Structures are given as C-alpha cells and as structure tokens.
Amino acid sequence: QVQLVESGGGLVQPGGSLRLSCAASGGIFSIYTMGWYRQAPGKQRELVATITNGGTTNYADSVKGRFTIARDNAKHTVDLQMNSLKPEDTAVYYCNADKFGHSAWRVWGQGTQVTVSS
Predict the structure, then answer these.
(1) Upper half-sphere CA count for residue 29 (Cβ side, 13 Å)
(2) Which of 26, 52, 73, 93 is 20 to 30 Å from 100 at the Cα level?
(3) Which residues contact 35 (CB under 8 A, 6 or more apart)?
(4) Torsion of the alpha carbons at 72, 28, 52 and 107, rounded to the nearest 10
(5) According to the model, what pLDDT value does residue 115 have?
(6) How far apart are alpha carbons 27 and 118 in whole angstroms?
C-alpha cells in the first residue's frame, strides 16, 4: 500500500498562489490515479483534481483554469499549483491515490490546511 504525505499548505491572501506537494512511498506509483480533494468545515469532502498515470486530468469546475495538477512518475510526486486563490478555497487538502483508478482501493494522505484570507 502506498503512503502519502502532503506539504505546502499555509495562509495566503486572496489572489495569491500556493503549491501543494504530495510525496508517495511504497506501492507501485504507476498503478495509481492520483488526486487532490478538499474538505471545508461543515462540508463534504470534494474532488479538486485528478490525474492518471497517462496524464489525463480532471478538474472540478470551481477550480478549472486556476489550479493545475501534475505528477512526476520518476519522483513519485503529485503537485497542485493553485493560483488566483479565493476565500472559498479554504479547506484541508488531501492527497489521494486510487489503486488501478478504483475508489474502492483508496489511500489518503494526512491533509494540509490551506487558508485564504486577508
């Protein structure tokens, strides 16, 4: 089973940028579809972006055009570049790995807090 560790969260002003990183260890990285999810207080965890081993990406409509997901299969990492951040982007962001692309075999990181506020 793969283990995931997120980093890069913090406090940023509206309109600013952050880059989240997720380092994967263990398992076979190439068999996982990687993703970022987020959960704001009082809300359900929601998908932000996913990327397959082949590079196919999927974004939530709310972040499309502002966020970019990328993976480095050699380094076993997946990053989320977040630009033009809004207060509504405030949430705990979780790195996710779906083995063979199936959510039934899902691994989560510990989460990293992103706060967008003046």
Answers:
(1) 15
(2) 93
(3) 47, 48, 49, 50, 51, 69, 78, 95, 96, 97, 98
(4) -110
(5) 98
(6) 40
Q: pLDDT value at position 80?
A: 98
5-8 — which CB contacts under 8 Å span 24+ positions? 5/95, 5/109, 5/110, 6/93, 6/94, 6/95, 6/109, 6/110, 6/111, 6/112, 7/112, 8/112
For residues 55-80, give the mean pLDDT: 97
pLDDT for the residue numbered 1: 79
Q: Which residues are bridge partners to 32 per DSSP?
A: 99
